Amino acid sequence: MSLSILVENLQKNFRIRKKSGLFKSVFSPEYFDVRAVDGVSFSLKEGERVAFVGPNGAGKSTTIKILSGILHPDGGRVEIGGFVPWVDRKSLAYRIGTVFGQRSQLWYHLPAQDTFELLSYAYDMSREDYLSRIKMLVDAFDAGDIVSKPVRQLSLGERMRCEIIASLLHRPKILFLDEPTVGLDVVSKGVIRDLVKKASDEDGTTVLLTSHDTGDMERVCDRVIVIDHGQLVTDKPVRELRSGYIREKIITLAMKEEAISLTMNGVRLIEAVPHQLRVSVDTSQISVEAVLQAAMKLSSLQDITVEDPPMEDIIKEIYAGSFV
Amino acid sequence: MEGNFIFTMGSNFQFLLALVRMTFKSAVGQRSALLIRAFFSVITHLIYIPVWYVVFSVAPDLSGWRLEHALYAYGLAISCWGIVSLLAFGLRMIPEQIDHGELDSYLTLPKPVILSAAFSSSKNTGVGEVLFGVCLLIFCGIHYGFSFVPMPFFVLMGSVVFASGILFFATLGFWLKQFIGSAEEIYFNFNLMASRPAPIFTGALKIIALTLVPVSLMSHIPIDFVVHHHWLTLTYAVLGVAAYAVLAVSFFYLGLRFYESGNRFGIKG
Predict the structure, then answer these.
(1) Class of A5-243 per CATH?
(2) pLDDT digit string (tens) for A108-166?
(3) pTM confidence score
(4) Is A284 within 8 Å of chain B by CB?
(5) Rounded CA separation B35/B33 (Å)
(6) Which residue of B lies nearest to A112 if distances are taken between CA atoms?
(7) CB burial class (10 A; 0-12, 13-18, 19+) of residue B185?
(8) How far A127 CA lies from chain B's nearest CA (Å)?
(9) Chain A partners of B104 at a C-beta cutoff of 8 Å?
(10) A256 touches chain B (CB under 8 A)
(11) Which CATH number applies to A247-307: 1.10.10, 1.10.357, 1.25.60, 3.30.70?
């Protein structure tokens, strides 16, 4: 069964109580609406891996919670393989897996394997199916030593591996991950990213991932949707975000001369140390080739590195509206 | 098999058993706390016995209620309170689960949210309460000659009323934030009213005790039955219990539409 995701003009407001005096707040409270999701539309094909990116309060988690049936929207349309999440929540739950980085589905005082067993009942798995599936996942996630320890004794990275095992137990067609690497160290982040990608590659699982970490986006996803203030800002393949949006290159030159001066329109000095120069080039004003030719005239170059700016900077620019 | 009513009920029941096993496993993991709290819970309730004794020494007959009826009512009320605390303490915590966004993980499971929300935690004082309540009922049976036969049924009926009442008031947490403290007060008063003699409830209080806070269904009508054997009244009471349970569950699912989740960092336990 194909499980594509269709979201049209999705809207969600939260009603917030205005701050007022004690008497007024009890007997005549006033409220105002905060628009968390404001007309977001997008679609996902089966097997796609999409990053849902945005600053704090952009509406990422709210959107994921609507898609997974947790929240009811105030307007718009969502269909996941023909199911409306908040109407067909239970039917959809057999087909989706969720990981909330800020919240756990594991029982704190018990080993993770107990939660897995409970989930096998929740998903109506036969005993044989459960045992073979859990063995496969524990091996794949190299989690043999950690699933038998009480969850309270696990590190955050170990816990997150168990969370992902729990979410993949019933072979979901779609995996929603809400900040799965929040709070993790670099190594654990890498492990989680690789595991999610591997699971998706092997089972064809569609992945929708929210994160503040552009590494999650680059290592796991093929496409990025950026939202801000509840509205869609951009929706592009990750590689196009680099090639289409980057008008800046970083050039690092190593040379025999102690110092040279590259004063040209569109070239900005980042760092100058003896025998090394690092500049930023605005490619809309001057080409990288022209800058390199000028540098070669001024010095004997020993090494040249041309880099894109970090993805984080690109996302920052998108948030700032420079590329819209 | 999905969508087949019998399969769904069977699978929900299996999930419920697995959930209760997990809850007990988690509670038993803290053995010393369980024993200490159970012991002190028994002591707390024992204190009420002399109180009732003194009250009925002064006024031996309260419109037909005597000491044995008060003890029977107290035994029923405490057993029901203990069973709900032990098996479904999560019901009492629903306002907190709402405030902390803890229903998220239950909502992504293909099972009724109410099962996970209600049966995912246990309060170990429940052991003491069940123990005390059952002992008191047995004492009433042996000492005052009340039949043992309907007792398990009354305890079951009362537990359903009490669980439904808790669910009904806990559901207000979908609209009233930080409601857990107020909800606990209501639950406590619910329990308190159930253990008080029926003749106290007259006029508007009687209407409340049969509708919004139906403590009469928990203790007053069962005791009326053991004294007068009014089968019709008991039948109405059973129907009332079923209606109240349906109302409470429906009210919860209505409230669930207003659930706002949240982003509180935390872990369930």
Answers:
(1) alpha beta
(2) 889 999 999 999 999 999 999 999 999 999 998 888 999 999 999 999 889 999 999 99
(3) 0.81
(4) no
(5) 6
(6) B22
(7) exposed
(8) 13
(9) 65, 70, 100, 103
(10) no
(11) 3.30.70
